[in-house]
Design brief:
binds pyridoxal-5'-phosphate, globular, alpha/beta, Aspartate Aminotransferase, domain 2, seven-stranded mixed β-sheet, 13 helices, 381 residues, 42% helix, Aspartate Aminotransferase, domain 1, three-stranded antiparallel β-sheet, 16% strand
Length: 381
Amino acid sequence: MKKRYLMAPGPTPISPQTLLAMASPIIHHRAPEFAEVLAEIRQGLKYLYQTKNEVLIFAASGTGAMEGAITNTLSPDDTALVVRGGKFGERWGEICEAYGVKVVNLDVEWGRAVTPAAVAEQLQLHPEIKAVCVQAHETSTGVKHPVQELGELLKDRPGVILIVDAISALGVYPLPMDEWHLDVLVTGSQKALMLPPGLAFVGLSDKAWEFVKTSRCPKFYFNFAKEKKSLEKNQGAYTSAVSLMIGLKDVLAFIQQETLEKTFAKHWLLSKATKAAVAALGLELFSKDNPSEALTAIQAPAGIDGQQVVKLLREKYGITIAGGQAQAKGKIFRIAHMGYIDSFDVIMAIAALEVVLNELGYKVELGSGVRAAEQILFGEA
Ligand SMILES: Cc1ncc(COP(=O)(O)O)c(C=O)c1O
């Protein structure tokens, strides 16, 4: 049996403790026992989101909460500005169009971050814009968009909300929702939250809740007002994903015990080490602006297909990383280091990358990337 390693940007590995917690006998979602679980989760999610407001939970992949973010705040014929700097930026536009929300696209070169000035310009050109939709971290390019600055830009405009997809960002680096004026903040369970896929989360600012009151898009399961009302009674509106919620309670307790500061510091260090290794191997980052701490997106060396790197790592060595998506396919590969990942996972991935690059004809000195990573992770000692 081949040993498997998961270094992809979601799903990410899960700790044995969380796996065991999720294997506990099922409890009824309307039982007082489950209400206690939910009470703890509500508090833990507020800590994670750094918000005073309720964070809603849905049984869905992250896209479910993205869809709900649009359908609960906007109406058909409203206009949204969509920052399209990668695959997931495009998704915002697709969701809007599915519900008759008009889209103004702000295209950003893949590998670059949007500038607040470009957003401000669009707002000036299109005063009808009611929402700015963006990724905190565009997973397809490894770039962080400047959502703090966008929050500043929009905070005093009561008619425009900032909708942020933080599916691969929340729990990786600081995104204090209230302090940064992020109006709608979406995430999913299968990345930094160290859980299986299947839960989607969304926090809303007071301003966003005002938008919910007038939204006329069709909605049923993803009804934010209804879900909030239930949650305030420590219930879900429908049958909760009980086992995943038990895992979530465990993970949130762990993050609170560890503290957000330490969690962010860990991701920062793993990312720095991976990026140092990449430089030592003579490779370049794909992310020209604001490379994220969640993953390292690497340009495939000339003459080497990025998909081959991914394939060889997976098929020969049992290591799953991610390739490029859409226009970046074949040109890049991505090593994730978020969630339940530690120093020696990164060392393993770099060591394997060295081996595979050599096998594909890009000659590197074995151990040179590993050494660079170790120097960051453990100092010179
Ligand atoms: C930034 C971002 N947005 C959206 C998604 C889609 O999430 P899901 O596949 O959970 O629906 C992902 C998943 O990789 C993501 O990284």
